[in-house]
Specification:
six-stranded mixed beta sheet, DNA helicase IV, nucleotide-binding, ATP-binding, binds adenosine-5'-triphosphate, UvrD-like_helicase_C, alpha/beta, Rossmann fold, globular, 34 helices, 4 domains, six-stranded parallel beta sheet
């Protein structure tokens, strides 16, 4: 008789054979589609769509290779369900393997001995390459097993497999947790698509992992709806995005765009460094009013009449005429640049009428001598006059968001007029020169873009792109017609249609366009006004009110998952309560889910971090660690001058335990980086750079400096102390809160 491992191996082999067959089939179908010819544009379009869908299917099949099959449920009636990373059918379309996201797979993540949902046994199958290496069973039938009773108490599902995953060395990138998702996490992953879900959880509670698995779940469950618009994931920094970047592809899902706030505005890289104070001012909600006022101020009404000369005739423009034309243009409720032509028309009309009155006046006092044709000529003259154009530009300029902000930041008076509500010191933080952008500028550019509307640059860019496509297509056709006729004698030639006969350059260009092979993420990234089917924000507590406005614009449907921890806020402009952070934009239209188990940080380390948390918020409860390692954190006080060298020595020793993260104050960053530079598996970061990351072993350097140098110092320290999966060392003078903690070991 087969033992259970052998029995599961038989299943596994069948699943891989099916996967291979499915892959071959999909690849062959894609190949057939690619060569299938058609001249009909719509058919071409549809064909390209099918090729893309098959490509996506193939990517999903390929991604399922590792860990294809990992779970099995046996129910009271003897029915068996095999659960894997992807769903597979046999030749008769009978299900063989069920996708982990399918509703029927749910008991694998939530059934307990107390609420067994008809399941008597849950089996975890561990595989490597295409072999079963181990299995673990959980009996969920209380009546039949005594083991069930103890299962009910732990609250952890698949404990042995979970602990193995948590204790494993980190690879430097986050991995999928499909095999060990816990019940409280599963509830969040499968929560409905509509509305705003806020997930609050302490360090290591799996918020990031869950947010990504939720994206995969939503894409699976609402594919038709989400595939067109995609999902946007916003993270705190590029290192973090790199850290999490493989999770969704490993679950077979693309169609997700990962960005930091700095990348939200197409066509610019916002990497200009700036002070925390300046970033805080730029993030305030009242900056929306400042930007609106800055735009309004560019619609100028002069105090005095202004004069402009057209062909030696002096024309006069009264402030009331400007004010009334401006009022009517604004009443159209269009963005500034789109309202501009209406304003311009009225001003030009007013000037033309005046011009006509002067030029066409009948010396004998009769009616004006000019006819409609003459008036049109005069109008053209007025419009073409550079002095008139200059005046119109001063009265109501066509503006890009960049220009608006540069003009504002670069001019004290403009700034004072637009931002009277800011203190002189706050305004000073905004004053600057240069045309590069910081991350905190991005939401302001976005705000300005909304109010200004298209300044013509987008249309010009599209026109240029189209002209390039047509020129390219023309070149291709010329090449074809140049080589086409030489192979045939004269008689044949009349029978044979060349590409040039069938297509002209414009049609061919349209075809290239239809074959836009950019991914959804690329297309969405190039379009500021793209709106997503769902938006996920990680470390959401860091977002400023202005950043929330920019994010909200990307999801008018308000289908969002916001994950974070208000005890970990580092940004001066970030939120320390969800209610306060979200109220200005979403009022109270959001639902809250909380996570309380810490899967990353061992109990010994969390004990220590708990002291800091209590100082931040005496009412907050630290998440409970699911495991302890028996290794206490250690502390060594090393004089500032010797710290970098000491860190380098210790980091070199710690790499034997895996990936090492050195988290230091900004003050010491350079010195430590220099000293540690080049050590393999060691990363040196500030707290801001370490947000969301984790390492096997962490060295926190200069904890007192970390606490003092930032407006939210204790929260930063809390983040730094909770980044390790195994070991924590603290180097340098301790702040009071840690001195009293007493949970230390000496470094051996
Ligand atoms: N159910 C689970 N099974 C296996 N590993 C898990 C599970 N839940 C979380 N983890 C692991 O725990 C670690 C912490 O998870 P994650 O980074 O998602 O937490 P977080 O709440 O975002 O933390 P932080 O707020 O501190 O950044 C990761 O290594 C993650 O893979």
């Amino acid at each position: 008789m087969q033992n259970p491992v052998q029995a599961e191996q038989v299943h596994l082999t069948t699943f891989y054979e099916t996967l291979d067959r499915e892959r071959e089939r999909t690849e062959a179908r894609r190949g057939d589609e690619q060569v299938a010819g058609t001249r009909n544009r719509q058919a071409l379009h549809q064909r390209d769509g099918r090729v893309r869908d098959l490509g996506a299917r193939l990517a999903r099949l390929n991604a399922a290779e590792e860990g294809l099959y990992f779970g099995r449920l046996d129910d009271v009636d003897g029915e068996v369900l095999h659960i894997g990373r992807i769903g597979l059918h046999d030749e008769d379309y009978e299900p063989l393997l069920v996708d982990w996201r399918a509703p029927v797979a749910r008991p694998f993540y939530v059934a307990t001995a107390v609420h067994n949902q008809g399941i008597v046994r849950r089996r975890h199958i561990q595989t490597r390459l295409r072999r079963v290496v181990d299995i673990q069973d959980e009996q969920l039938d209380l009546e039949r097993t005594a083991a069930g009773a103890s299962q009910a108490g732990t609250g952890v599902i698949g404990e042995a497999v979970l602990l193995k995953a948590l204790e494993a060395r980190r690879t430097g990138t986050m991995e999928s947790i499909v095999q060990t998702i816990q019940a409280d996490q599963d509830r969040i992953i499968r929560s409905g698509l509509a509305g705003i879900l806020v997930v609050q959880g302490g360090p290591g509670t799996g918020k990031t992992a869950i947010a990504l698995h939720r994206a995969a779940f939503l894409l699976y469950t609402h594919r038709a709806q989400l595939e067109k618009r995609g999902i946007l994931v916003v993270g705190p920094n590029p290192t973090f995005l790199k850290f999490i970047g493989q999770v969704l592809p490993s679950l077979g899902e693309d169609g997700v765009r990962l960005v930091t706030i700095a990348e939200l505005y197409p066509g610019l890289t916002a990497s200009r460094p700036e002070s925390a104070e300046a970033a805080e001012v730029k993030g305030r909600a009242e900056l929306a009013e400042v930007i609106a006022k800055a735009v309004a101020d560019r619609q100028w009404v002069p105090d005095q009449p202004v004069h402009v000369t057209v062909e030696r005739t002096v024309l006069r423009l009264d402030p009331t005429v400007v004010a009334e034309a401006g009022g009517r243009a604004r009443a159209r409720r269009l963005p500034h640049n789109q309202a501009r032509p209406f304003f311009l028309t009225e001003i030009i009309d007013a000037l033309t009428d005046q011009y006509a009155d002067i030029i066409g006046a009948d010396p004998l006092g009769g009616e004006n001598l000019l006819d409609d044709y003459d008036l049109e000529e005069l109008r053209n003259e007025v419009t073409a006059e550079p002095a008139v154009q200059e005046l119109l530009h001063r009265l109501w300029p066509n503006l890009s968001p960049q220009q608006l902000l540069l003009d504002l930041y670069g001019d004290e008076d403009r700034l004072a007029a637009a931002a009277p509500q800011l203190s002189p010191l706050d305004r000073e933080h905004l004053l600057r020169y240069g045309d590069d952008w910081s991350p905190a500028d991005v939401p302001l550019l976005d705000e300005a873009a909304e109010l200004l509307g298209d300044d013509g640059q987008e249309a010009a860019r599209l026109r240029a792109e189209r002209a390039r496509e047509i020129a390219y297509a023309q070149g291709s056709l010329d090449l074809l017609s140049g080589s086409g006729s030489t192979d045939f004698d004269e008689d044949d030639e009349s029978e044979i249609l060349t590409a040039k006969d069938i297509l002209d350059a414009e049609a061919l260009a349209a075809r290239y366009e239809a074959e836009d092979d950019r991914t959804l993420a690329e297309r969405a990234g190039a379009d500021r006004r793209w709106t997503y089917g769902h938006v996920i924000v990680d470390e959401a507590q860091e977002l400023s009110p202005m950043a929330w406005r920019a994010i909200a614009r990307r999801c008018p449907l308000r289908s969002m998952t916001l994950v974070g921890d208000v005890a970990q806020t580092g940004a001066a402009g970030g939120g320390t309560s969800w209610r306060n952070a979200l109220a200005p934009i979403f009022a109270d239209r959001w639902r809250l889910a909380e996570l309380t188990m810490n899967y990353r940080t061992p109990a010994e380390v969390m004990d220590l971090a708990g002291h800091v948390l209590r100082e931040i918020d005496p009412t907050a409860k630290a998440p409970q660690s699911v495991r302890s390692t028996g290794v206490k954190p250690w502390h060594v006080d090393v004089a500032a001058a010797d710290q970098a060298a000491y860190v380098s020595k210790v980091a070199g020793e710690e790499v034997q335990h895996g990936q090492v993260g050195v988290i230091t104050s900004r003050l010491r960053l350079e010195l430590v980086q220099e000293a540690v530079g080049g050590l393999a598996d060691v990363t040196v970061l500030t707290v801001a750079g370490a947000k969301g990351l984790e390492f096997d072993s962490v060295l926190v350097v200069d904890p007192e400096g970390i606490t003092l140098e930032s407006p939210r110092g204790l929260r930063d320290l809390y983040v730094a102390l909770t980044r390790c999966t195994q070991r924590l060392g603290v180097i340098g003078e301790l702040p009071d809160v840690l001195r009293d903690a007493g949970a230390w070991d000496a470094r051996l």
